[in-house]
Design a protein that fits this description.
By secondary structure, the chain is mostly helical. It has a domain at about 1-30 and about 45-80 and about 85-180. Helices cover about 60% and strands about 0% of the residues. The protein contains nine helices and no strands. The chain has helices at about 1-30, 45-70, 85-110, 115-120, 140-155, 160-175, 190-195, 200-210, 220-225. The protein starts with a helix and ends in a 7-residue tail after the last helix. The relative contact order is 0.15. The protein binds zinc ion. Zinc ion binds near residues 107, 120 and 124.
Length: about 230
């Protein structure tokens, strides 16, 4: 059992590193086409790369635990046909909304002076984040985030395709939030969407002034709790 868990963890780690390399390459291509008048492109910091590769082991272990537990019939993942069509969009929306609220509360706690140094300082190492910062977490923070994802498959009935769509959305959104908004192509509708959705403007602000913009996907909690910076 333990040997099998170790092999599945290794496989999951390879998948996660491939995902990170693919998304950082897409981010580089997106920001490479920025207008010449924009700020210079910053290379990723070695610190963020090391932390990303390290914390991926924690997420890989979480993924392996889910696969092993599902094999034993212990999760609420739904296999096979027969589920109503609306279960996929409902499950997708429910998990994003739940994660958004939990993340906001935990993120604010992680900024408490007694926790910050141990659990969240690593993610804030870069004042000008890059795509690699999206996955750069101290081991304790990675453990908290992975525990949420593992808990989801034990609590919420999801089809595997919905779970995969959620993981891709989470990864892509995380990378987008850590890009320099001034280096993104002009055609992206970020200025219009950012009244409701967290984007690079919000999260970039959080990296420069950590007392504001704690949200993950939606601006709702920052609005309700008064942690939204006025729009420039
Ligand atoms: Zn933070």
């Amino acid at each position: 059992m333990l040997r099998s868990l170790a092999w599945v963890t290794l496989g999951m780690y390879a998948i996660l590193v491939a995902r990170t390399l693919l998304l950082t390459a897409v981010a580089t291509a997106l920001t490479a086409a920025a207008p010449a008048s924009g700020p210079p492109r910053r290379p990723p910091s070695g610190h963020d790369i090391r932390l990303s590769l390290g914390s991926s082991w924690v997420f890989a272990l979480g993924g392996a635990v889910v696969i092993q537990a599902d094999g034993l019939g212990l999760t609420r993942l739904i296999h096979g046909p027969g589920s109503p069509w609306w279960l996929a969009p409902l499950g997708f929306a429910a998990v994003l909304l739940l994660q958004d609220g939990v993340f906001y509360a935990v993120h604010r706690l992680l900024h408490h002076r007694r926790l910050y140094r141990w659990l969240h300082q690593g993610h804030h190492h870069s004042h000008h984040p890059t795509a690699w910062t999206a996955f750069a977490f101290d081991p304790g923070e990675a453990l908290l985030q992975a525990a949420f994802l593992v808990a989801v498959v034990f609590l919420i009935p999801l089809q595997p395709a919905t779970l995969l769509a959620l993981l891709l959305t989470m990864s892509g959104w995380a990378v987008l939030n850590h890009l320099d908004p001034e280096r993104l192509p002009a055609g992206m509708p970020l200025a219009w969407l950012d009244q409701w959705l967290i984007g690079p403007r919000h999260h970039g602000h959080h990296h420069r002034r950590p007392g504001l913009h704690f949200g993950l996907y939606f601006t709702l909690w920052d609005k309700l709790c008064g942690t939204e910076a006025p729009k420039p």
